[in-house]
Amino acid sequence: MNSSALTLRAYAATDEDAAVxxxxxxxxxxxxxxxxxxxxxxxxxxxxxxxxxxxxIVVAExxxxxxxxxxxxxxxxxxxxxxxxxxxxxxxxxxxxxxxxKRLSPARLDLLVxxxxxxxxxxxxxxxxxxxxxxxxxxxxRPVFRMGWRP
Length: 151
What we know:
This protein has one domain (3-149): Aminopeptidase. The chain is built from four helices and seven strands. The protein has helices at residues 16-30, 40-54, 93-104, 118-126, and strands at residues 6-10, 56-62, 65-73, 78-84, 109-114, 130-136, 143-149. The strands form two sheets. Strands 1-2-3-4 form a four-stranded antiparallel sheet, sandwiched between helices. The chain has a three-stranded antiparallel sheet with strand order 5-7-6, with helices on one face. The protein is globular.
């Protein structure tokens, strides 16, 4: 699979298992000391109850394999998740998903990023996001930065 075969498309209900599995695999790689397998039930409930009903979800796909996804609430501009399969870290997949999020919410994007995720912070800064304060993630309890993008 190469990124030249990358396509973006709207999320479909049949993508749920692949999206949940990708979320688990990606976060497990980013935070190996946390047991994300134990959190799959919670995540699936949150996915179905909070994200799917309120966010626009766009899937990045290569040869019918999900390589990433982004979730954005166009009403609030909140970007809850941008997930890219580890094998595509450093490629253009995240940038394409972020560009799509900006297209879906052209007035603003806001997000929370874990303070210890230097890679993600640098990515967001490179793509025009600015620090907007510090917070604690209401879900994980981890210290986070609030970041925002305004065109």
